[in-house]
Amino acid sequence: MARDVQITFDCADPAGLAAFWAEALGHRLQDPPEGFESWEQALEAMGVPPERRNDASAVVDPEGSGPRLFFQRVPGDKQAKNRVHLDVRAAPGLKGDARMTALEAEAERLASHGATRLRRYEPAPPLGAGHLVMADPEGNEFCLD
Predict the structure, then answer these.
(1) Residues of the chain with pLDDT > 70: what percent?
(2) How many angstroms separate the CA atoms of 115 and 3, rounded?
(3) Which pLDDT band, with edges at 50, 70 and 90, does 3 fall under?
(4) For the residues 24-45, what does the mean pLDDT come to?
(5) C-alpha to C-alpha distance for 126 and 104, rounded to whole angstroms
C-alpha cells in the first residue's frame, strides 16, 4: 500500500523558511482552516498567543501532486550536514552547457531569496550530468539538479 509523504524541516523561522521553499518549488502556503480568511485570524480564534504564531507553517503543491512541506520551530541551531536533502529538478532534459546555464540562473534566483551557493559539480559523462549544491536560508543543503 502506497503512503503519502510529508517532508518536515526543523527550523528557527517556520514562516520565513516556508516562504523560501514556496518560492523555490512553485508551491503556495497552505490555506487556513475552513471558515477563516487568514492564518492570523485562525490562530487568534484558536487562542494561540502572538509569540507562538510562528511555531509552524506549511507549503503545498498547487497542483496537489507533490508532498506537503511542513516547517516546525525547534530550539537550537543546525548542528551537522544533512543526511537527507532535496534535489530541485531545475534543468530537466538539458545537458552540458545548457544544463549548467539553467542551473546557474536558478541559483541566482534563489540566492536573491536567501539561498547560499556552496559547490558546483561539472558534468562528468556518462553518469554525471552536473549539479549545484545550495543551502536554504537556515543552512539546509539541497541540490539544483
Answers:
(1) 100
(2) 31
(3) confident
(4) 96
(5) 21
**pLDDT score of 95 more than 90:** yes
Q: Which residues pair with 51 in a beta bridge?
A: none
Cα 69 to its chain centre, rounded Å, is 7
pTM: 0.89
Cell of 55: 511555531
DSSP the chain: -----EEEEEES-HHHHHHHHHHHHT-EEPPPPTT-SSHHHHHHHTT--GGGTTSEEEEE-TTS-SPEEEEEE-SS---S--SS-EEE--STT--HHHHHHHHHHHHHHHHTTT-EEEEEE--BTTTB--EEEEE-TTS-EEEE-
* Mean pLDDT for all residues in the chain: 93
Q: Residue 83 has what pLDDT?
A: 79
Using alpha carbons only, how large is the chain's radius of gyration in Å?
Answer: 17
